[in-house]
Design goal:
- This protein starts with 6 loop residues before the first helix and ends with a helix.
- The longest helix has 28 residues.
- By secondary structure, it is mainly alpha-helical.
- It has a three-stranded mixed beta sheet, with helices on both faces.
């Protein structure tokens, strides 16, 4: 039995209760995106705000801070994992105590109103009615950033960034993103030109949702998704939610194009497998959580981009696609790996981030990073977002979103939640994924052959040993060093893009 009388034991008991409350909140969030009738939004928002405020109050209380100090005084008596857990408890206490419960509640309510309105207003391309709702969320997010900055000594944007990527700084992101901005625009243009002559056979016809879902479920099972601890549903915006014991992933379907849903499911399955692979004995504790959103995104992009868009995976999955979705309108040659590889690795700048190809995707992220940083710092106001968005889209991707809000600045759900500081983690994840896949190749010499046969056990075991089973035991840099031999290095992502799109 765990010691519940010592300071550390009392902390473990507290965080176990917090885990249970977080579990319920996660299920309520999932339900609001998938099953809840529109009329339930106001009451659900109130309930979630109550839980958020309660969790913040309990974790950030003076009593919790005192227990952490008492446990820290005798940390030498704790095991290595307990010491790491205590470190993560302190981080969660600091994050919670830096912001008042009243602001947490107000922010949660404003976010709920904004998100629920966004679901309708985006489809109407209605920026005018959306702007005041988003303005309220951004104003409260700025208040949070100021409080967190005062408590941590970090710049306001970095104080938010550290909620998602502990130890990261905007100075480092600026340096890394500058390397990508110097490489990607010309590379994207060059690749578009090179691919113009490709001979493509596109799947034709209508692809019923039930057949798309059957294929998705089959591939999820093949790559190792545990259906005893998770499920697939439908929502406006694909996501992975829930808790490790009960992971919920969602997708959205288009009957004229199954690839968007399929690749989205495989992407979210990467997130889900990470959650399902976290250390079970520590799931109710901070050290048992995923290390960061950049590491989380590395696992989804490892699955989707590194594995599932590879020639080897398409040799395995092509016959399954044909069996589930083949029809008289699509020739058999469409389902061959060479053709699928050309189809699933097209570089074509577009408006929608979640549909973007691997090479242009980071430019979508850099655009959002630069805008949200300016929003937090106060050099950009919400009313000016559409114009600033259009300018950067034209500069980075050669596209205009003037008056096209639904495919421009209203397309993402993140800012409706006040999740500023989150977007950089997508491209940090892409770089981490490329670096980790290189390490997996070195560790598993026959990896391509295993993937082409639909055999993923060895790769999943490698990921578990390298990433999943460590939870938040290591810092981000140390986790990457343990798994790949070095901290994040952008050269591996650039090399990956060059090999995939311009092989010599």
């Amino acid at each position: 039995m765990p010691d519940t009388t010592s300071a550390y034991g009392r902390l473990e008991s507290l965080f176990h209760k917090i885990h249970n409350l977080t579990h319920l909140a996660a299920m309520a969030h999932w339900d609001s995106a998938t099953m809840m009738p529109p009329g339930g939004s106001e009451a659900r928002g109130q309930a979630l705000a109550e839980i958020s405020s309660l969790i913040n109050e309990r974790v950030g209380s003076q009593e919790t801070g005192e227990l952490i100090e008492q446990a820290d005084a005798v940390r030498s008596s704790l095991s290595d994992w307990q010491q790491a857990n205590l470190r993560e408890m302190r981080r969660e206490w600091f994050n919670a105590s830096s912001v008042s419960p009243e602001l947490v509640r107000a922010h949660s309510l404003a976010s709920s109103r904004c998100e629920n309105a966004w679901r309708k207003l985006r489809g109407e391309n209605n920026w005018a009615d959306f702007e005041p709702l988003l303005s309220e969320v951004i104003a409260l997010t700025r208040e949070q950033a100021a409080m967190r900055s005062a408590a941590s000594g970090l710049p306001p944007y970095d104080a938010l960034l550290n909620l998602y990527e502990p130890g990261q700084s905007s100075d480092n992101i600026n340096r890394v993103f500058a390397q990508l901005k110097a490489f990607l625009p010309a590379f994207v243009k060059q690749t578009v030109q090179e691919q113009k002559g490709d001979d493509l056979i596109r799947p034709a016809g209508s692809f019923p949702v039930e057949k798309q879902k059957a294929l998705a479920l089959e591939l999820m099972k093949a790559i190792g998704f545990d259906f005893n601890h998770g499920r697939l549903d439908t929502s406006h915006h694909p996501f992975c939610g829930g808790v490790p014991e009960d992971v919920r992933i969602t997708t959205r379907y288009a009957e004229n194009d199954f690839s968007e849903s399929l690749m989205g499911v495989l992407h979210e399955s990467g997130h889900a497998k990470y959650e399902q692979g976290l250390p079970r004995e520590w799931l109710s504790q901070p050290v048992g959580k995923a290390r960061s959103m950049g590491i989380h995104e590395s696992q989804s992009l490892f699955q989707e981009m590194q594995v599932c868009r590879s020639h080897a995976f398409l040799r395995f999955s092509g016959p399954l696609m044909k069996a589930r979705l083949g029809n008289s309108e699509t020739p058999d040659a469409c389902w061959e790996a060479d053709n699928l590889h050309r189809l699933y690795n097209r570089v074509q700048p577009g408006y929608i981030r979640v549909n973007a190809d691997e090479a242009s995707y980071p430019l979508h992220v850099i655009l959002r990073y630069e805008l949200e940083k300016a929003l937090v710092e106060g050099s950009l106001e919400v009313r000016d977002i559409p114009e600033a968005w259009d300018e950067k889209m034209q500069n980075y991707l050669g596209l205009s979103t003037r008056d096209n809000y639904k495919d421009g600045c209203m397309q993402d759900i993140h800012w409706t939640h006040g999740m500023l500081g989150y977007f950089p983690t997508y491209t940090l994840g892409a770089m981490n994924a490329a670096q980790l896949f290189r390490a997996a190749h070195e560790a598993i010499p026959d990896l391509e052959e295993l993937i082409s046969r639909g055999s993923f056990d060895v790769l999943n075991q490698w990921q578990s040993k390298a990433i999943w089973s460590w939870g938040s035991y290591w810092s981000i840099d140390e986790l990457m060093r343990q798994a790949s031999g070095e901290a994040l290095n952008p050269k591996h992502f650039i090399h990956h893009l060059q090999q995939r799109f311009s092989p010599q």
